[in-house]
Amino acid sequence: MVGSTVYGFENELYQIVALLQTLGYEVLNSHVGTIKVNPKLSNLENCLNAVDECDLFLGIIRPYYGTGNIGEKNITFEEIKRAIELKKPYWFLVHRDVVFARKLFTKIKDTEKIEVRKNNFFDPRCIDVYNYVIKNHIPITLRNGNWAQEFYRLDEMSIYIKTQFEDRTFIENILAQED
Fold first, then answer.
1. Environment class of residue 20 by beta-carbon count within 10 Å: exposed (0-12), middle (13-18) or buried (19+)?
2. CATH number where 77 lies
3. pLDDT tens digit sequence for 102-142
4. Are residues 76 and 66 in contact, defined by beta-carbon separation less than 8 angstroms?
5. How many domains does the chain have?
6. Which residues contact residue 87 at a Cβ distance below 8 angstroms, ignoring those fewer than 6 apart?
7. Residue 114, pLDDT score
8. Over the stretch 134-163, which tens digit does the pLDDT of each residue have?
9. Helical ranges in the chain per DSSP H
10. What's phi and psi for 57, nearest 5 deg?
C-alpha cells in the first residue's frame, strides 16, 4: 500500500504506483482507485481496511497534511499509525521541507516563543507525522524501524523505492521474519 496526501502530488503518486507495479506488486492506493470501497463505511474506515489488507506499507510524508481530515484525525496519519501498530513491514519517504522545517522550528522554539500556523505552504502537523515515524518519543539508542528517507524530487524517491522493493528475496525474507 502507498499512503500519502494526494493534492499537488497526483502525478508523482501515479508514477510511484506504476513503478511498484512494474516491479511486480499489486499496489493499494486510494487515489489511483485500487482499494476496495465499502459505501457503508467512511473514507477513513475504507483506507484503514486497506492497511489491514496490505502486506507492505510505503508511507510518504509531505509538507501538506492533506484534505482527508475527519475531526481531529487525518487519514494519511491514521494509515501510518495503523501500519506501525499492526507491525506491517513499512518504509517511509519524507520530503526535505518537512525535515528542514522540523530543524528550523526546533531552533526557533528554543530561542523564542512562536506559534506556527497551518497554511497553504506548509502545515506544521506534518512534523508530528514525521516525529511519530522516526519514533522521536523513544531515546535514539533504543529506536529501530525509524528510518525515513529524505527526498525532494521523484527520481530520488524512485531510487529508494527500487532499492527497497526490486529484490523480491529481500522482501520475502522480511515477510517471513517473526516479530
1. buried
2. 3.40.50
3. 988 877 765 555 555 655 667 788 999 999 999 999 999 99
4. yes
5. 1
6. 179
7. 54
8. 999 999 999 999 999 999 999 999 999 999
9. 10-22, 43-53, 75-85, 96-111, 125-133, 154-165, 168-176
10. -130, 125
